[in-house]
Amino acid sequence: MSDRYTSFANTPAGRAVVKRLGLPEPLRLRRYQPGDPDVAGTVLVGGAGRLADPVRKLLRSLGAAIEGDGPYTGLIFDATGITDSAGLRALYDFFHPVARSLRPCGRVVVLGTAPQDCANPREATAQRALEGFVRSVGKEFGRGTTAQLVYVAPGAEDAIESTLRFLLSPKSAYVSGQVVRVGPAHVDQPKDWTKPLDGKIALVTGAARGIGEAIARLLARDGAHVVCLDVPAAGQPLSAVANDIRGSALQLDLTAADAPQRLVDHFSERHGRVDIVVHNAGITRDKTLARMSEDKWDVLMDVNLSSQERVNDALLAADLLPAGGRIVSVSSMSGIAGNRGQTNYAASKAGVIGLVQSYAPVLADKGVTINAVAPGFIETRMTAAMPIMVREAGRRMNSMSQGGQPVDVAETIAWLASPASAGITGNVVRVCGQSLLGA
Ligand code: NAD
């Protein structure tokens, strides 16, 4: 979808007008193109804890420079050595002198220890403080800069490569202000980081268009065979996507009584397993609660939440998700912040978060991870249909002053689906350009 304001603001005349009037200045975000390195330029690493040295080693192995004067493409701070509030001064000491030395679309990553993993209350207090710092940097630095906090559990030091690659690369263009938790896990490093999903079988629901289509295309780019699922009415665009990416098309209404069994039959007969399940299919049926008919509530809850539960249960009961399996569900910012006219939708999307968080420990025993992504304003048919003022507010009220693209959600899902992301489970990652709404 076209965002004429962003196009205008990126012309020389537009830039001048926008500056003079103090309007939002959306920078054209740099996005990943095949062949791009995950990390380029100079990334400055500061702080002193258990991660600074391994991170420097990793960055060198990726071909990044880690010393020298700015401008920098990234700033990484290892805060795991901070054990009390006085120690937080180290954040100021590292970031203050270089706060204006980041290139456009720069990357800030702070590494910490989750408060529940800390040795004592003082350390936990200081580590919790990192969240406020990082979220403010995301709102303050501007020019397409993203800022994230990664809590790395003790023992998970070897499990962070996929996360650092993602957060430092243009793949995370629209992810900012997030807290990611990485736990200890045995990580299978991909032989080829440009094809981390080689040999994997993936299911993407709602793949005929929009975000689902982008997810299917990206998982195929990363090497997976993708089974693209959508309703029979979307059969034509569905086949076009599946053919284009050499995947397969499966016409199926997820609310049909036999849908779980048909999925079980499909995967057991054709592939013997399914490694990656992406629950993307979703609908809106907006109305204020007083005006909402019961069918609007029922059909929405069935598509957006109950069908995910039925499909997961059936695939797990049939033992089709092997160790190393990945489930990623698409939630929404509405599920976090709530939204007028969306009691049904927000309840379903908050339910998706509940599903992911409650299943994570259960599935950990099987070596399967389950995570959610929560998109904010993404340029799709769904958002194109909004009234213009609501649409403009959604587009601009975030740190990037623009809407995200379906590919931004897809890149985030591809990162979570990677075999190298074994340490990430029960996480909810917003793809919202750091929306001003919600936590
Ligand atoms: P979309 O309407 O363009 O695509 C959704 C797809 O799901 C369609 O192809 C549709 O046919 C399919 N689908 C619907 N019901 C189905 C069923 N019963 N069985 C099988 N397939 C079914 O929507 P989108 O904007 O691409 O959104 C994709 C997901 O992202 C949804 O879960 C949505 O709630 C979520 N989301 C979108 C945005 C946004 O800004 N676009 C923001 C937050 C969350």
Automatic annotation (TrEMBL):
InterPro entries: KR_dom, NAD(P)-bd_dom_sf, Sc_DH/Rdtase_CS, SDR_fam. It comes from the Bacteria. Residues 200-376 form the Ketoreductase domain. SMART domains: PKS_KR. Belongs to the short-chain dehydrogenases/reductases (SDR) family. This is 3-oxoacyl-ACP reductase. It comes from Planosporangium thailandense.
